[in-house]
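Per your request, structure below.
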């Protein structure tokens, strides 16, 4: 695209005008313009691959579904078409979209100071660290804030290397930890790793849920003198499709790591802050990891926010030079205000308890559907409101995703990756909305079964 300053200004103005226009004053023509331009911009300036990948989004009637406004578990597109959201931004929207108390805290902080000076001591960040230290299991105490889950994982890896003086990691097949060069080294799928190789040296992958494979890998690493800094895993694998490990997995990982003098890192980016029915995923098994990573829901679905936290004795290695790991925007006041408000909402509204009860309800209903439609739904996995609907194959899964979309249920599922579709709504979704989704799901199954 050739440089054109006045066009750049006009294009910026186009969207600013839309943002500043009260929603009931946007004309149909303006709305259609936004939908049309969004497709063009994706095609020309983001990645045209998305348009073919997201067929059920882009081939909708005359205009692609273009998101515009959300509240709770309802997402409206720019033309006013309304969806019930059971994707929950892959766990971002645990308290619901635009929870009023979280939005209010962010607005109040926006009027005071949105970013840090970078030199004075910032009170919100310090207070949030204290709150999280009090929430986390065992003696987890110090933390660092960043913007994305990926950054939290990268920071945790770096801390583990600094503390142990070792380079290696043990990670899990199909595990998801982000796609930066560091986090990608841990990720457990060839398709994303191969083009970026070589990645970090000495990462060993083992199957998720089998602690004995971790033990074997550590004993071999010790025998051949290969240093391992940490074992990294999700308490419940999210991206892999809500995969719950056996109950003795995490307690065994704790024992094995202690035995070999290796750190245990729990990637709670998706499971943290209530998603699985407890505040943290590891709480199901009463395990205290050495380092924990947070992201997604931490900022309450309002501001991007992530963190890694560790025990004080591990953090010691960062104290002589606190600039060993830094970020300019991580843990900014808006993000901290959002996280503090989200934590208060989580405790006041008992969103972990809501996840537990609603999750049990959904799992029960899905089991009934599985009995009625065995040729479609193969199994149901997960805990709390991190639920995986496992279909018999990709094609059936894609038909379900497209069918749900046509029935205005927002979910994820692409042509090539739809065997497992996550049922991961806001923890505050109402039972009426859940029932409505289940009705539309059954309706979709019926249409596929004939
Ligand atoms: C989403 C996710 C990440 C990456 O977080 P981003 O905010 O997308 O960078 C890392 N780990 C887990 C377990 C995740 O689910």
């Amino acid at each position: 695209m050739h440089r054109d300053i006045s066009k750049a200004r006009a294009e910026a103005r186009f969207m600013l005008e839309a943002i500043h226009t009260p929603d009931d004053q946007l004309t149909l023509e303006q709305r259609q313009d936004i939908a049309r331009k969004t497709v063009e911009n994706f095609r020309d300036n983001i990645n045209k691959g998305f348009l073919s990948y997201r067929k059920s989004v882009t081939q909708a009637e005359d205009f692609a579904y273009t998101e515009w406004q959300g509240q709770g578990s309802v997402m409206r597109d720019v033309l006013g078409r309304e969806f019930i959201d059971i994707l929950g931004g892959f766990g971002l929207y645990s308290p619901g979209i635009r929870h009023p108390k979280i939005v209010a805290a962010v607005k109040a902080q926006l009027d005071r100071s949105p970013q840090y000076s970078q030199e004075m001591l910032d009170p919100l960040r310090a207070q949030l660290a204290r709150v999280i230290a009090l929430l986390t299991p065992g003696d987890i105490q110090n933390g660092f804030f960043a913007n994305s889950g990926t950054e939290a994982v990268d920071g945790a890896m770096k801390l583990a290397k600094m503390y142990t003086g070792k380079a290696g990691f043990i990670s899990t097949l199909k595990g998801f930890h982000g796609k930066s060069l560091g986090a990608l080294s841990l990720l457990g799928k060839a398709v994303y790793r191969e083009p970026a190789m070589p990645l970090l040296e000495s990462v060993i992958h083992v199957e998720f849920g089998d602690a004995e494979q971790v033990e074997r890998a550590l004993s071999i690493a010790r025998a051949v003198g290969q240093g391992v800094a940490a074992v990294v895993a999700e308490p419940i694998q999210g991206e892999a499709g809500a995969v719950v490990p056996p109950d003795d997995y995490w307690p065994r990982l704790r024992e094995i790591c202690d035995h070999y003098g290796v750190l245990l890192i729990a990637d709670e980016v998706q499971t943290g802050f209530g998603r699985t029915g407890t505040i943290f995923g590891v709480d199901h098994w009463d395990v205290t990891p050495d380092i924990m990573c947070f992201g997604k829901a931490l900022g309450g679905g309002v501001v991007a926010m992530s963190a890694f936290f560790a025990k004080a004795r591990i953090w010691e290695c960062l104290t002589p030079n606190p600039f060993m790991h830094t970020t300019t925007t991580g843990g900014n006041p808006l993000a901290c205000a959002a996280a503090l408000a989200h934590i208060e909402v989580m405790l006041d509204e008992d969103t972990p308890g809501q996840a537990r009860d609603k999750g049990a309800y959904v799992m029960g209903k899905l089991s009934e559907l599985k009995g009625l439609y065995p040729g479609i739904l193969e199994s149901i996995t997960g805990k709390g409101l991190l639920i995986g609907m496992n279909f018999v194959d990709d094609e059936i899964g894609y038909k379900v995703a497209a069918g749900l979309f046509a029935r205005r249920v927002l979910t994820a599922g692409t042509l090539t990756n739809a065997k497992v579709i996550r049922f991961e709504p806001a923890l505050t979704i109402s039972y009426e909305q859940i029932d409505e989704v289940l009705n539309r799901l059954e309706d979709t199954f019926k249409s596929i079964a004939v």
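Residues 58 and 64 are 4 Å apart (CA to CA).

Regards,
D.
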